[in-house]
């Protein structure tokens, strides 16, 4: 009977270590995935804020002449510049890149940021993940 115990000694320890390793990998996925979701949510809010600011760049002369709100690309870029600068300095690790595309009827903002994986990339093997968010806004007539 003692011979069988000697052969099985340490199997529970190895099984426990295996479970701990699997738990750490699952926790790493959860933490890094939640971080990606959080960064995407923040970037989406920032992109919407920049697009809304750009949509306020209505060409007043055109509006008075035709009654239609038309965006002035230079004014829209100027109106959104402060908010875009805040977005570009918002993340401490890698600042996001803000791109603004203005047409006469719509302002579209694209925000790109790279997110480093924290727990899953302890060895430096995995590449950072790029998060891209796009928002648009259009000028509307007031009441």
Notes on the structure:
The chain is α+β, with helices and mostly antiparallel strands and 143 residues long. It is 52% helix and 18% strand. It has 4 helices and 3 strands; from the N terminus they run ααααβββ. It has helices at residues 2-8, 11-54, 60-66, 73-88, and strands spanning 97-103, 106-115, 129-137. A 3-stranded antiparallel beta sheet has the order 1-2-3, covered by helices on one side. α2 packs antiparallel against α4. The longest helix has 44 residues, at 11-54. It is rod-shaped and about 95 Å long. It starts with a helix and ends in a 6-residue tail after the last strand.
Report strand %.
Answer: 15-25%
The share of residues in helices is 40-55%
The total count of strands amounts to 3
- Given the helix and strand composition, which structural class is it? alpha+beta
- Can you list the strand order of the major beta sheet? 1-2-3
User: If you average the pLDDT, what whole number results?
Assistant: 85
Low-confidence stretches: none
Short synopsis of the structure:
Helices cover 52% and strands 18% of the residues.
Give structural attributes.
3 strands, about 140 residues, 4 helices, three-stranded antiparallel sheet, alpha+beta, single chain
């Amino acid at each position: 009977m003692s011979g069988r115990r000697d052969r099985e000694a340490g199997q529970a320890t190895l099984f426990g270590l295996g479970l701990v390793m699997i738990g750490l990998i699952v926790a790493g996925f959860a933490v890094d995935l939640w971080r990606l979701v959080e960064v995407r949510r923040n970037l989406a809010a920032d992109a919407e804020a920049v697009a809304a600011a750009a949509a306020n760049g209505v060409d007043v002369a055109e509006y008075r002449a035709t009654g239609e709100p038309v965006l002035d690309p230079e004014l829209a870029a100027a109106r959104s510049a402060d908010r875009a600068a805040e977005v570009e300095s918002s993340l401490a690790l890698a600042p996001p890149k803000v791109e603004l595309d203005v047409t006469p009827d719509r302002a579209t903002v694209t925000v790109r940021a790279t997110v480093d994986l924290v727990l899953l990339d302890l060895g430096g093997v995995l590449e950072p993940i790029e998060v891209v968010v796009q928002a648009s806004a259009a000028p509307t007539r007031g009441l």
